[in-house]
Amino acid sequence: RFVADVTHELRTPVSALVGEASLLKTKLEADPSVCPPEVGRLVTMVSTDITRLRQLVDDLLEISRLDAQAVETVIEPVDLGLFLTQLVRAHGWNETVDVRVTHGAELGDDAAGIRPAATDGFIVLVDRRRLERTVVNLVENALRHGAAPVRIEARRGTAAAPDATETVQIAVTDSGPGIPIDHLPHIFDRFYKADPSRSSSRGSGLGLAIARENARLLGGEVAAGNVPEGGARFVVTLPAGDL
């Protein structure tokens, strides 16, 4: 509650700082002659750091709400293929992120015990906003700490157990070197960074934790691993819901 209260109060002044820094940066870019080049560089640095601060405040507020179970969900039918395609387009990832929706075993490693299930379409019952937050955080993590191109693959399946319900898996795979094995158990820890040199990176260190908490809010889970050909893979498994 304390974190939620503090971050809520910080949002207004931080948002004002973001607007002011952005305006100053825009004016300097429009007329660089108004100040020495080093001042322009300092303005860019200040603007970047304030934007990072706002992201941290927003992430702290969100995760405190998730911890307090103060987040509502609105479950509705979602066309998963269309949803993922529009998400990639809205974030300007068309050149770096590829979307693939399948009904077979093309997702890769079957360590999760998933087998294909027949389906007439790819409509799932889910909270659109929570799903978007989960996938966006995973893709941003892949682009920031992995390498493009990034693949988003989705498929419908059922767990191997006889009494298991239908599930949906969404995998985000990057083309980077993968996650070191000794870091995998901690990858969802808050503020954890596999590379200490990234302590000044633009991420808040909460993105993966928020993605996992949103998936759990939907009754699912997120798992992390590496693929044999190289690259990290995060797999979101959610209940498909009964239409």
Describe the protein's architecture and organization.
- The chain is α+β, with helices and mostly antiparallel strands and 243 residues long.
- 41% of the residues lie in helices and 21% in strands.
- It is built from five helices and eight strands.
- It has helices spanning 2-30, 37-67, 80-90, 128-145, 207-217; strands spanning 75-79, 97-102, 114-116, 123-127, 150-159, 166-173, 221-226, 232-239.
- Strands 2, 3, 5, 6, 7 and 8 form a six-stranded mixed beta sheet that branches. The chain has a two-stranded antiparallel sheet with strand order 1-4.
- Helix 1 (2-30) packs antiparallel against helix 2 (37-67) and helix 2 (37-67) packs parallel to helix 5 (207-217).
- The chain is globular.
- The two termini are 37 Å apart.
Q: Structural class, from secondary structure content?
A: alpha+beta
Largest sheet: 6 strands, mixed
Shape: globular
Total of helices: 5
Cα gyration radius (Å): 20 Å
**Percentage of residues assigned to helices:** 40-55%
Flag low-confidence runs.
109-120
Strand composition percent: 15-25%
The ordered string of helix (H) and strand (E) elements is HHEHEEEHEEHEE
User: What is the number of E strands?
Assistant: 8
Give the rounded overall mean pLDDT: 83
Termini gap: 37 Å
